[in-house]
Design a protein that fits this description.
- The two termini are 22 Å apart.
- The strands form five sheets. Strands 1-2-6-3-7-17 form a six-stranded mixed sheet.
- A hairpin with a 2-residue loop joins strand 4 and strand 5.
- It is of the alpha+beta class.
């Protein structure tokens, strides 16, 4: 289709402009400024072309960008298209300048191209198309959808910062009912992702001379607790993710070979399912051990798409393949119905010489449009 070819070309050029602006997590202002101007210009052109129809509004909360129509129907649910605009630091193994994008063999190379630039530009173009934008020709009336549609581009996703999705959810007055979280899934629908709970354990004893068998050995306390955690089984099993995964990954203690340690610390990595909240897990485990357990962050919850919701219904209706995501995303900070779906492949993320295929962007634009029309 000609319109899809034009939108893909537009998306690729926008992606290359984004890549050229360093946007390491917590340093997204440059790319946020650029995208804000870009979105405002497109919204203004479309508003003039559409005329009396509802106007597109572009707003900004810190480095998060929001676009929506001012004629939302209170009778419809509101769907958010969301992707993140930040990247990780470039790997030292890059064989080219990570901020100098280029096309080669049907691919766009550069930092953030796959994670998450491909989703960003695909969602932008799908959003404007559904609101009547026709590149290179006269605008059309906005699509008559069964949902209100908003676009939210968030910052600080890679470092789970407080001024990204969390700030949007806490501060922005207009909140969506459901969301498509754009992440590289090959446009399969990730219907669940595990959360992340990291716990620091601290065992306390009494120091003494090892030769006289004095004191209370904190290392033994920690080892006993680690053994309990290793054998612990969570009762509730997720129908889509299975069991909660828990692994002790670090142990530190001792000052000298002849001193009974008075303190031992260890770290527990837990990947929860939707069956347990992080505070629930903390309470269960603290009751099992003598050591003091402290969570580094209780907000990184697990997520699962409701089986009876409008998004899962659409996934089934369109026959979209599903998967369980191995990675976390802004989904864990969005407390309502969602599915994770976007162009690219997760295995390319955070690696040197990152790229995304142009055909993947094209398929994503078309896929997003078709999905939203079929809700």
């Amino acid at each position: 289709m000609e319109f899809l070819h034009q939108m893909t070309g537009n998306a690729v050029e926008l992606l290359k402009e984004m890549i050229a602006i360093p946007s390491i997590s917590f340093g997204e202002k440059g790319v946020a400024d650029f995208l804000y101007s870009h979105l405002c210009e497109r919204a203004e052109r479309l508003n003039e072309a559409i005329g009396k129809k509802g106007k597109l509004i572009v707003e900004r909360v810190a480095n998060n960008l929001i676009v929506y129509r001012d004629d939302f129907s209170p009778m419809k649910k509101t769907l958010m298209l969301n992707s993140h605009i930040d990247t990780v630091e470039p790997s030292a193994a890059y064989t080219f300048d990570a901020f100098s994008p280029f096309e080669q063999d049907g691919k766009v190379y550069g930092l953030g191209s796959n994670d998450d630039g491909g989703s960003v530009v695909s969602q932008i173009n799908a959003f404007f198309y559904l609101n009547g934008e026709r590149i290179g020709r006269e605008a059309a009336d906005p699509e008559d959808l069964n949902v209100n549609l908003m676009l939210v581009l968030t910052a600080e996703e890679e470092r789970s910062g407080k001024d990204g999705m969390s700030r949007f959810v806490e501060e922005f007055q207009l909140q969506p009912d459901c969301a498509i979280i754009g992440e590289p899934t090959g446009m399969e629908a990730a219907i669940a992702e595990r959360g992340l709970l990291v716990i620091d354990g601290r065992a306390e004893g009494i120091s003494g001379h090892a030769a006289r068998n004095e004191g209370v050995n904190a290392l033994y306390i920690a080892l006993d607790d680690i053994a309990r955690l290793r054998e612990y089984k969570f009762e509730k099993k997720s129908p889509v993710m299975g069991d909660v995964k828990m692994t002790v990954t670090q142990l530190n203690c001792g000052t000298a070979h002849n001193v009974v340690p008075c303190e031992a610390t260890f770290v527990v990595d837990i990947r929860p399912t939707e069956q347990y909240s992080n505070p629930e897990i903390m309470e269960l485990l603290q009751n099992e051990v003598k050591s003091t357990l402290v969570a580094r962050n209780l907000k990184n919850r697990s997520s699962a798409t409701p089986q009876d919701g409008i998004l899962m219904d659409t996934v089934k209706k369109l026959g979209i393949a599903t998967q369980i995501s191995a990675t976390t995303s802004d989904w864990m900070k969005f407390p309502r119905e969602a599915v994770k779906m976007g162009p690219g492949v997760s295995a390319r993320s955070h690696k040197a010489d990152e790229f995304i295929c142009i055909d993947e962007i094209s398929a994503a634009i078309e896929g997003y449009i078709n999905f939203i029309k079929n809700i």
